[in-house]
Design a protein that fits this description.
Transposase; 52 residues; 2 helices; single chain
């Protein structure tokens, strides 16, 4: 059986501990942060700010 992606343990040492990074990523996943960022970006592209 093979695994896709990179294991959290393989993060560079100059990052925080892998478990801290994983926990933050998990929190963002639970609140669907990436979905909200993509939605904001798509709406912003459809309706640009007229003051710019």
């Amino acid at each position: 059986m093979s695994c896709a992606g990179s294991p959290w343990h393989d993060l560079p040492e100059n990052f925080s501990q892998w478990l801290s990074i994983y926990r933050q990523f998990r929190r963002w996943t639970l609140v669907r942060l990436c979905d909200r960022i993509c939605l904001f970006k798509s709406v912003h592209d459809l309706f640009p700010n007229p003051r710019q």
